[in-house]
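It is worth pausing here to work through a concrete case rather than discussing structure prediction in the abstract. The textbook approach is simple: state the sequence, then state the predicted structure, then interpret. We follow exactly that order.
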Amino acid sequence: MNHSIGLGDVLFFFVMGAGFPTMTFIILFACSLFFSLFTYLLFKSSMRVKTVPLAGLMSLFLSAVLMLDVIYGLPSLYIL
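Step two, the predicted structure:
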């Protein structure tokens, strides 16, 4: 288990799942996975360790989405 998915990943999934409504969680989760994949593929050649920091990249994506929500006054993520 520690080689493919870490404790930070599992804890992040639980917190994200408990913190958002079901549809919002599914959309954010899928989009953050795609963001993590593309970011990893973009920086793969310059990384020393060849593992994907999934929880870190997903939290970076979630932080960006929440900041855009606050700055631009987008519809609330809790409406869906």
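Step three, interpretation. The chain has a mean pLDDT of 87. Residues 22-43 form the longest helix (22 residues).
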